[in-house]
Automatic annotation (TrEMBL):
Gene3D superfamilies: P-loop containing nucleotide triphosphate hydrolases. This is AAA domain-containing protein. SMART domains: AAA. Pfam families: AAA_5. It comes from Paenibacillus silvestris.
């Protein structure tokens, strides 16, 4: 799982840690699968090195480029369970940190107990925290997260008053949907706390391998044509003629899967073209596909 490109010292340390961790199966179901195909070797190598050094990593890439897959992949490499939060949903302090509730013990006595949320669990257990769409975090949430990312790595639990300092193995991976064309607003102080890694759409031979292993479509010629379609769409994205989501590998996989049962042009329309807002953009995808299929 670890290539030669990872410095030997780090490889050995990670192997050692993995062996120690194997004894501890608690939360093992939260360890991700190593299924990320790196578009370039440095993407994976630098992410691993930064995390090894205790840095927070921010993954920047368009929708369906494999950011979540990469986070799961490093969770597997470090053999650390990963807790996930998504900032685009209505997150409040309770959803992140936890809440107090009434519980009954065996004698029937009621007592107030604290049910920890994902941040608390990751910090105290030394697990990974995956913060998705971090640019969408509301100001209240941001100030909470800023403290966690700080060199102090601590947070005051407003429900218990307790100051929690993170376990040394605690790591943060965050993601934003930033595409080929623009940038998304992201608080400077927040950005400053991360090492950033750009993730482009997987292309060429590596994409072919991914489609071949993941899709229910097995026709080699068609799979190769989809790889070409993806390259052509990414060119149009780079020229500003298509939005990023037109190049999503998730959508491409959907199109391949559908093509196992319906004609490719219909599959492309359903999986890629028809969800685009603009009529000209839909036409551009269809025209591009028509030159290939
Ligand atoms: N580099 C890659 N390696 C492996 N799988 C990939 C890769 N890129 C895309 N995929 C596939 O595409 C799908 C979408 O990937 P993923 O959910 O990680 O994207 P994402 O960047 O997190 O997207 P979003 O921004 O919409 O959350 C996955 O199910 C995966 O199968
Ligand atoms: Mg994702």
């Amino acid at each position: 799982m670890l290539t030669e490109a990872i410095p030997q010292e780090i490889r050995e340390q990670l192997e050692q840690k993995r062996e120690q961790m194997n004894a501890n199966t608690e939360d093992a179901n939260l360890i991700g699968a190593a299924a990320f195909e790196a578009p370039r070797e440095d993407i994976l190598v630098d992410t691993i090195i930064a995390l090894y050094l205790g840095k927070n990593v921010l993954l920047k890439g368009p929708t369906g480029s494999g950011k979540t897959k990469l986070a799961e992949h490093v969770s597997a490499i470090f053999n650390q369970p990963m807790h996930a939060v998504n900032c685009s949903t209505d997150l409040d302090a309770e959803a992140l940190l936890g809440f107090k509730t009434l519980s009954h013990d065996e004698q029937g006595h009621s007592q107030i107990v604290f049910i920890p949320g994902p941040i608390m669990k990751a910090m105290t257990k030394g697990h990974f925290l995956y913060i998705d769409e971090i640019n969408m975090a509301k100001p209240e949430t941001l100030s909470l997260i800023n403290g966690v990312l700080d060199y102090r790595r601590s947070i005051t639990n407003p429900f218990t008053g307790e100051v929690i300092t993170a376990h040394p193995d605690f790591r943060v991976v965050a993601a934003i949907n930033e595409g080929y064309m623009g940038t998304v607003p992201l608080n400077e102080a927040l950005k400053n706390r991360f090492v950033t890694v750009d993730i482009p759409y997987l292309q060429g031979e590596a994409l072919y391998k991914l489609l071949k292993s993941k899709s229910v479509l097995h026709d080699d010629k068609l799979l190769r044509t989809y790889v070409q379609l993806s390259a052509d769409l990414v060119t149009l994205i780079e020229m500003g003629q298509l939005p990023d989501e037109a190049g999503s590998i998730r959508a491409l996989l959907d199109a391949c899967d559908l093509t196992a049962y319906i004609p490719p042009m219909r599959a492309v329309a359903r999986a890629i073209a028809d969800k685009l807002e603009d009529e000209r953009e839909r036409a551009a995808v269809i025209n591009t596909a028509e030159t290939l299929f």
